[in-house]
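User: hey, got a sec? need Transcriptional regulator, BadM/Rrf2 family folded
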Amino acid sequence: MKISTRGRYALRLMLDLAIHQNDHQFVTIKSIAERQQLSEKYLEQIVTKLGRAGLVVSARGPQGGYKMSRDPDDYTVGEILRIMEGGLAPVSESQSNLPYCSTEEVWKRLAEAIDGVVDSITLADLAKWQEDAEK
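Assistant: Yep! Here you go:
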């Protein structure tokens, strides 16, 4: 399984919001792009998808931008990645018309392990790790 650039940047965007949306103020894409050294245009595409999924809300105008719709504790890495990637399974679904093969157990266990990791880490965890790394 390989996480796309879009998935990785979505996670960075959400982490940036978690760290910088003081008092639930809106954060501009421009400021996120500058801090993360990423393209504004690409981040706009990503934040649009996150907005459609209800993870962020937007406001127009001089005080506008984006903010998370929930607290950082309420987002998991898995939720964000699944929105961007569509799924995290290491292989596509098995063919039901093929005979059973025990290697399917490997893929099942690997998918469970991946889900266990990404669903146990919140944005709040990432923000704390970032803060600790910057000390």
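Quick note: The first strand starts at residue 56 and ends at 59. Let me know if you need anything else on Transcriptional regulator, BadM/Rrf2 family.
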